[in-house]
Write a structure and sequence with these properties.
A six-stranded parallel β-sheet has the order 2-1-5-6-7-8, sandwiched between helices. With 450 residues, it is of the alpha/beta class. The protein has three domains: 167 residues, Rossmann fold, CATH 3.40.50.2000; 161 residues, Rossmann fold, CATH 3.40.50; 45 residues. 49% of the residues lie in helices and 13% in strands. It is flat and about 115 Å long.
Length: 450
């Protein structure tokens, strides 16, 4: 889909500070809308040269900090100072509630956001505008900043084509059930493993499982009916093109019921629907806010509901067709980016028009937050240097071990060659002929010694 000239914005240049400028997050939250709105996106972090370009703020109408980029607190502090001088608005965008990551979530288990949460909290408080993907996330952050706007994740119809696919209508045909998601969804997927195993027993020889992105749960790996396909793409556009062609009859979208997931968007419903594949979803937010059970998809909470819903979809090709048709109709009606980009333009332009530099807090608590953020950043830098130093030492040790191993092999080879020379000499005719003479010489030496 080409940009709609009616959606062109008076806002021209936005500087994006993000750790990835081509993934789903950047594309859904800014790059896709920018293409339709006619915004020029300047990379604050340039992936071509691997450097941060704070000077690009000079040409920007607005600065857009995405998610956890502010963990680089030194860079954030410089951006904030420059914006204060130039009297330009600062925007932070969050699509996940990173403050409520559950204990069993892979990102929390490895401490991925541990050094980013305090800077994110501070930027949320200081930003002139905070944009979020959902209402629950807005409600969560409102106590810290009153200027929070919901900017939903829409389906970018410049890269997704919402087109029906021909379903399998043979009621006895093999059914492929699929799941698409990243490795951080391990707890969500694990939740339905008992059901997926039960289906193999209930429908022997009829069920295939395909997993895209995340590998199959351990309890399912041993089954021959299970296949895994890694999603090795450098940008969201490539993923969209590949996912539209996947082979599946039914898709699943399990999601654990917790405050972190409740703040998520319904993007999986949009992607599944655009691919033209009916699905069953967990009966939690965000899906209960978007999907009418039995119309655009099925919803399930318990193992029994998951088993019943999946059995329904397996046994009824007609139901699968109906759900797919209704889901795509809803997406076309309510969830296309091209039909909603004007609202996004309005949000940003109102932020520009109503912008007044915030009076920065000088309370003891705000000063303490800044101090802690600086200390947090300095500690992160120290740890990063330590890790790099240890890696360098490891490389040096590996090189030294390689050198010693090489010398040892050279010594062994020299010994082998000497042994061969000695053996060859001992076995030679001249050695055998002179042997009596050598023994006579040794005998004389013994006599003389005596």
């Amino acid at each position: 889909m080409q940009p709609n000239t009616a959606n062109q914005s008076r806002l021209k240049n936005i500087v994006l500070f993000s750790y990835d400028d081509q993934d789903a997050l950047a594309t859904l939250r800014l790059l896709g809308p920018a293409k339709m709105a006619g915004w020029n996106i300047l990379r604050g972090y340039d992936f071509d040269d691997g450097k941060v370009h704070i000077e690009r703020v000079d040409a920007a109408d607005m600065v857009f900090i995405q998610r956890d980029f502010c963990r680089d607190y030194d860079t954030y502090a410089k951006i904030k100072s420059l914006l204060a001088i130039q009297r330009k608005p600062l925007l932070i965008d969050l699509d996940d509630n990173l403050f409520e990551i559950p204990p069993d979530h892979p990102d929390r288990l490895v401490g991925y956001y541990a050094d980013a949460l305090l800077p994110i909290y501070q930027v949320v408080k200081e930003a002139d505008l905070v944009t979020v993907a959902t209402e629950p996330l807005r409600d969560y952050l409102l106590p810290f900043n009153p200027n929070i706007h919901i900017v939903p994740n829409y389906l970018d119809d410049s890269i997704w084509e919402v087109a029906p696919r021909a379903p399998r209508i043979d009621e006895n045909a093999t059914i492929t059930i699929g799941y698409m998601g990243g490795w951080t969804h391990r707890p969500d997927l694990q939740m339905v493993v008992p059901v997926l195993k039960g289906l193999l027993d209930k429908y022997p020889g009829r069920i295939q499982y395909h997993f895209w992105g995340i590998d199959a749960p351990v309890d399912l790996e041993r089954y021959s009916q299970v296949d895994w396909y890694p999603l090795l793409f450098t940008c969201y556009d490539e993923f969209a093109n590949a996912f539209k062609a996947i082979d599946a009859d039914i898709l699943i979208a399990p999601l654990c019921d917790n405050s972190f997931n409740a703040c998520k968007s319904c993007i999986k419903f949009l992607e599944y629907g655009a691919a033209g594949i009916p699905a069953i979803y967990s009966r939690v937010r965000p899906y209960i806010d978007t999907i009418e059970h039995g119309k655009e998809g099925l919803l399930a909470s318990t193992d029994e509901e998951w088993m019943a819903g999946l059995s329904q979809l397996i046994e009824s090709p007609g139901l699968r067709v109906e759900l797919m048709k209704n889901a795509q109709e809803k997406i076309r009606k309510d969830w296309l980016l091209s039909a909603n980009v004007a609202r996004r333009i309005q949000i940003y332009e109102e932020a520009m028009a109503n912008f007044h530099p915030k009076v920065r807090e000088t309370s003891p608590s705000s000063r303490m937050e800044q101090t802690l953020s600086v200390l947090n950043y300095e500690e992160a830098v120290r740890k990063d240097k330590q890790v790099k130093s240890l890696k360098a030492q490891g490389v040096e040790k590996d090189e030294h071990i390689f050198y010693l191993d090489h010398n040892l092999k050279m010594r062994d080879e020299n010994i082998r060659q000497l042994e061969e020379e000695i053996l060859s000499y001992v076995m030679s005719r001249s050695w055998r002929l002179t042997r009596p003479f050598r023994e006579f010489i040794r005998f004389l030496k013994r006599l003389i010694h005596v």
